[in-house]
Amino acid sequence: MLVLITDIFGETNWCQSLIQSWRAKGHNAMCLSPYINPYIATYDSLTDATLFANEEQAYQQFQLSGGIDKYAEKVEQALQQVTETNEPIICVGFSAGASALWKVAAKSFDKVALTHCIGFYPGQIRHSLELTPLCPFTLVFPGSEDHFDVEAVIQHLVTKQNVGVVQVELKHGYANPQSDNFNEVASNELTELLVKELAQTKTLNLDIVNGQQDFITGLSQQSHGYNGRTRCL
């Protein structure tokens, strides 16, 4: 199963398009957002797309919904609702979704089979650096962030087990058409990569050395022209 965990904008048209592409490749796929009811989230339906006027409005709604900690609770609850599929679960999170996923991946579950997590521009994990994921976790950082030193965070993270780090010279939010930092070329390349790479995961070895290394190599290649930088344990 492939699970998309959105940023503060929620289940946008871009998110729905990615989910539909995964399903077209034969995967069960589900979209989780800060605004879903985790007890009714399913892998066979989509909710109405969310649309905020700007990032400030999205951020305000996100805070009203409980912020990162509440989002992590929703992600955990939703994943526990779909364990009856007995499928390995691969999660892809963006921004707040990546940071919520980081919290969830550090927990031990009896029934949730997280096999690989991928988090794009996960800025809020700087507040949770004491955590270590229990499954392979690929983190994709932007070139810089306005509110903290990305390099210092990376230096801490690359010492952890199960963690691979990629840094590309793009801005936070580059994949999301609703973000102020949207980069159409990079977003299209990333979308193609996610569809192409994850379409093969039914047989892909997701071992920390083999599977994650292959995926990180793909992420590095997609950043051509942006002075991409890759670090992998």
What does this structure look like?
- The chain has one domain (2-232): 3-Layer(aba) Sandwich (Rossmann fold), CATH 3.40.50.
- 35% of the residues lie in helices and 15% in strands.
- It is built from seven helices and seven strands; from the N terminus they run E-H-E-H-H-E-H-E-E-H-E-H-H-E.
- Strands 2-1-3-4-5-6-7 form a seven-stranded mixed β-sheet, sandwiched between helices.
- Strand 1, helix 1 and strand 2 (29-32) form a beta-alpha-beta unit.
- The chain is globular and about 40 Å long.
- The model is unreliable at 201-216 and 220-229 (pLDDT under 50).
- This is Dienelactone hydrolase domain-containing protein.
- Residues 3-192 form the Dienelactone hydrolase domain.
- Pfam families: DLH (PF01738).
- InterPro entries: AB_hydrolase_fold, Dienelactn_hydro.
